[in-house]
Amino acid sequence: MALEKDHKVTAYVRSPEKVLLYNENLTIVKGEVFSLVDMAKAMASHDVVVSCLGGNNNDKETVITKMTEIIIKSMKENHISRIVTISTSGIHDEFSFVMNFIVKSFLKHAIHDHRLAAEAIISSGLVYTIARPLALTKGPLTEVYRKTPQGVPRGGKEISRQDLAHFLLSVIENDEFKNETVGLAY
Question: Of 48, 133, 140, 166, which has fewest CB within 10 angstroms of its CB?
Answer without folding.
Answer: 140
